[in-house]
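Dear support,

I submitted the protein below through the web form. The confirmation email said the job was done, but the results page showed an empty box. After a refresh the structure appeared. I'm attaching both so you can tell me whether what I see now is the final result or a partial one.
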Amino acid sequence: MSQLHYLCKPEAMVPATLPELVQHVLAGDDFHAAVALYPVVNSADRASLGTRIFSTRRDVLMLARWEHTPAAVLEVLSQLPHMPMARRVVRHRNTAGETLSQHYASHQDPALPSLLAQHPHAPQALLLRMASEEQDHVVLKCLVRNQQAPTAALELLHQRFPGSFDKELAMHPATSPEMLAAIYAAHSDTAGGALIRAAIIANPHCPQACVQQAEHAHERALLRAVAKHPALSVARIRKLASYPDNAVRAAIAAHPSLPPMLTMKLAQDASDAVRRTIASRPDLSADCMWQLAQDQDPWVRQWLARNPASSHDLLNKLALDIDEDVRRAVARNPRCPLMLLKKLAHDARSWVRSAVAYQAAATSTMLARLAHDSAVDVLAGVAVNMHTPQPILRKLAHADDMDIRRGVILNSQATRNTLLPLLEDPYYLHRLMLVSCPQLSAQDKWGLRDDPDYRVRFTLYQWLATRLSSATHPSYFDRRL
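What the results page shows now:
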C-alpha cells in the first residue's frame, strides 16, 4: 500500500485515558487485548475483564502455557477452583514470587517443590525455607542450581548435607569464599576432585589461597581453570606457556598479564587455537602483527583483521587477502580507514560488501552506491545503517525481502514517514516491532488495534496500557505528529 493511501485512511482517535481504553476493549470483546490490560487496571475493571478472560476452559488452558501471559493473570489462574492447574502456573516463567510462595505453603502435588526450587522468580525467603525444610535431594539439587539462591540457603544446605552438593556449590555465584575454601580442601585427594577444584578456581569468589595452591597442581582440568584466572602469577604464566595441553596455552594466550616476549613466542605456537587467541590481543607489537598476517590459518588472519589495534598499513595488506572472510573482517574493523572501506565496497564478494554496508563509519555516499546492489545481505546492511539517506530508506521499506524491511525498522534514524507504510507490512513480527518505535505516535500505532495477528494486538494494548497508566495528563500521547 502506498504511503499516500495509508495517510488517507479514516482514523479513530486513540483513547486518552486508561478507563477509555478499558471500555474500548470491553466493547470490542478482544480476548488478547483484555489480557494485556488486566495487570494495570483497577479491581473493578479487572472484574469486568476477568469475565472475558477466564470464561472458558480453552482460554484458561491457553493462558497457562502462553509465554507472554502476565503474572497477574497467572495468579488468578492458580486460584481457579474448578480448573486446578498449579503445576502449569508454577512452571511458567512469568509467575510472580508471591504466587510461588503461596503454592509452596498449600501444595499437595509432590512435583511442585522441584519446580518451585528452580524457578527464577522464587523469593529468597522461599528458597531459604526450602533449604531448611526439604529432605528430597532432587528438590535440593534444583535449589542449589538456582542462580537466584541466596548465600544463606547455600550455607544451610552445606551444613545439613556435607559433601552432597559440593559440585553445584563450587559453581554457584553466591557461594561464599569461606565455603569455597572448605570445599576445595575437602576434595584435594578425592576421585574427581580436580573437576570440583577447577570449578572453584573459575568461581568469581574464589579465595586467593586456593589459586596459589592450584598453581602447583598437575591435573589438566585444574590447570585449564588456573590459566584463566586473572590473579595468576607471572612466574606461573611463564611455566604454563609451555604446557603440552593446547587449551592451557590458549588460556594463557588470552591472559591480561602475558609478558610481551611470551606473546611473540605463542604467536608461533603449533596450535591454531593459541595463535587465534594471540591475534585478538589489544597489546600486540607491530612485528608480532606482521608475523600473524602471514599465518597459514585464515582464522588467525581474520581475528587480526578484526583487531582494533591493527595499523592502517596492516589492514591494507589484509584487505587483499584471498580469503573473503578476512577481507570482511577488515571491513568490520571499527578503525578501518574510509579509503579502504570505499575500496572494499567494490569487492567481488557480496559478503564483503555487506560488511561495509553495516560499518558505522560508512558515509552516505558509499551507502547510496551500495543501495543499488542486488545482494540481500548488502541491502539489509544499508537499511539498518544510521547514515543511509531517508529517500533510500523509504525505497527499501518497500523491498520484497523481509530482512531488508526489518533493517529499516531497526534503523534508529528512520523517520515517521519512512516507517508509516511498514505498519501494513505482511510479516506480523515487523508490525509488532513497530509498536515500540519512538518515531511513531500513539495515533499512528492505534491503527494496529484490529491487526489480524493476536500477538500484534496484544503488544499494542500492553504498550498503550502501560503508558496510559503512568501518564500524568491525557496530552501525554500526542495524537498527531
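Response: this is the final, complete result; the empty box was a page-load delay. Residues 454-470 form the longest helix (17 residues).
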